[in-house]
Amino acid sequence: MRIAIVGAGVAGLAAARDLHRQGHSVVIYEKSKGFGGRVATRRVGPYTFDTGATSIAPRGKSIEQVMLHELDTSELVLVEKPIYAHQYGRIFPGDMARSQVPRYTYLGGNTKFPKLLAEGLEVRLESTVDRLRATNSGVEVFGESFDAVILTPPIPQSEELLATIGETRRFANVRYRPCLSVLLGFAAEMPEVRYHAIIDTEQRHPLTWLSLESVKCPFRAPAGHTAMVAQLGPAYSRQFFDSPDLAIIEDTVSQIERLYGPNFGTPDAAEVKRWRYSQPETTTTFESVNRPGSRVLVASDGVTGGRVELAYEAGVMAAKLLSESVTV
Ligand SMILES: Cc1cc2nc3c(=O)[nH]c(=O)nc-3n(C[C@H](O)[C@H](O)[C@H](O)COP(=O)(O)OP(=O)(O)OC[C@H]3O[C@@H](n4cnc5c(N)ncnc54)[C@H](O)[C@@H]3O)c2cc1C
What kind and span of H or E run contains 66? Predict the structure, then answer.
């Protein structure tokens, strides 16, 4: 079969990898300049930040086998310190079960994982698919004929593509939350801490998640410096999504000062990354939106759950359903 995949995030790459391995011809169209989608790494000055997924917990069987046993592991780093919680300005151990899950990152940033997955695959970068065309034998993308297509963008964006061929699926209950990620580098040392990240499990505090990137992984900041990524909660992110970067950065720095005091000073690197669709708050199931024999499948974290290992599983499921139920 000749298969088009929209999106070179983890779901798209997982599907492509399995289909390619089975001998199918696969073309991935990706709108941005690089691989990974919401597994994203950004370098600013001497700092390296994971702006989307902080770490990867290869809990599902398929991702575990691929990430830990098939792909190059020379840059893989086990995140040793756990995740703590924070509430009312206090930082404490929180849910210990969360901390027992092995989590990994890569020395140069988490985008290494999608880059490794993409090796040997045909990925057309900077190629935004804005319409599909249904044909008697499959689907056309950019005027090229395919036997089937797998859509992996977040559900609202996949829905728009389905609408171009007059299709709707049962996505009514899938909703994503927005997230402002604020990248901060400080020319000051982080005091010794027992955790690599803190979470507000209630998701009410503006600072829902703070990853200490330079505690999480070596070489994310020069000696004596600190790199952090603050993820702002859904209510805050919705309200201030279009606010100027400077206002969001100043507000985030003041939230950090409330936790750690004024010792960090002014950041010497600061950027805002806006995620309109960060993680699904509610999902549907893969089976309820994908029927055997369909030549247009939907496989994003919106059908499994907002985590890297679940997005991977969505891709694996799409590849399996397609290869088992569609013949040409
Ligand atoms: C801030 C943040 C923090 C997170 N933290 C964690 C974490 O710590 N651990 C964890 O496991 N998960 C985390 N996640 C969730 C995880 O990153 C996602 O669930 C997962 O990466 C989703 O993968 P995907 O392939 O389904 O979608 P995506 O990664 O969104 O991939 C879809 C791809 O499709 C492309 N695309 C979209 N439209 C088109 C088009 N029309 N044409 C061509 N290409 C298109 C996009 O550019 C993108 O590359 C986090 C996410 C965010 C945003």
Answer: none
